[in-house]
């Protein structure tokens, strides 16, 4: 399986073989963006609550769809998790590739990681002759 690529980022599939420290890094990314969590997650009557079990649930649901791919975004030169992404090969409504989530750790905002990851994901998902890629969710 080929993976997206970019100069500063390594895209690591978030599957059953991903190490615990990478999952902890992805959770840290999610928790570093509380405004996003407040509008998209929550349980136990606590808006914005998100924990490791919820992340693992989200990744298990993602793994059920062979056209859905979740990635940790890691610095190529150091291995630090700086973000994560969730993409579909074909969105069921429009049948075009779709970037459903692209989230960068709050400490790494404004450094071009989001733009670089979006470009790499779009280039990876784009078929020859295709010009349209949908991006939604939280893009920084």
Distance between the termini: 27 Å
Supply the CATH superfamily name: Gcn5-related N-acetyltransferase (GNAT)
Structural class designation: alpha+beta
Estimate what percentage of residues fall within beta strands. 15-25%
Order of strands in the sheet with most strands: 1-4-5-6-7
Helix content: 25-40%
How would you portray this structure in words?
The protein is globular. It has one domain (9-135): Gcn5-related N-acetyltransferase (GNAT) (Aminopeptidase, 3-Layer(aba) Sandwich), CATH 3.40.630. With 140 residues, the protein is of the alpha+beta class. The longest helix is centred in the C-terminal third of the chain and has 13 residues, at 113-125. The chain has helices at 20-31, 34-40, 52-63, 113-125, and strands at residues 9-13, 42-43, 46-47, 68-75, 81-88, 98-104, 134-135. The chain contains four helices and seven strands, in the order βααββαβββαβ.
Brief sketch in words of this structure:
The protein has four helices and seven strands, in the order E-H-H-E-E-H-E-E-E-H-E.
List the helices and strands and how they pair.
Layout: E1 9-13, H1 20-31, H2 34-40, E2 42-43, E3 46-47, H3 52-63, E4 68-75, E5 81-88, E6 98-104, H4 113-125, E7 134-135
Which short descriptors sum up this protein?
single chain, 140 residues, alpha+beta, Aminopeptidase, five-stranded mixed beta sheet, two-stranded antiparallel ribbon, 4 helices, 7 strands, globular
């Amino acid at each position: 399986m080929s993976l997206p690529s970019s100069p500063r980022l390594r895209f690591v599939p978030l599957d059953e073989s991903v190490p615990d420290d990478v999952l902890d890094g992805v959770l840290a990314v999610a928790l570093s963006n509380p405004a996003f969590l407040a509008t998209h997650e929550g349980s136990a009557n606590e808006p914005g609550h998100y924990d490791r079990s919820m992340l693992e649930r989200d990744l298990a649901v993602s793994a059920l769809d062979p056209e859905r791919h979740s990635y940790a975004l890691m610095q190529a030169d150091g291995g630090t998790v700086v973000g994560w992404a969730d993409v579909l090969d074909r969105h069921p409504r429009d049948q075009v590739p779709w970037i459903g989530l692209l989230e960068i750790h709050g400490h790494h905002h404004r450094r071009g990681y989001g733009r670089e990851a979006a470009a790499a994901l779009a280039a990876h998902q784009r078929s020859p002759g295709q010009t349209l890629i949908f991006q939604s969710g939280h893009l920084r």
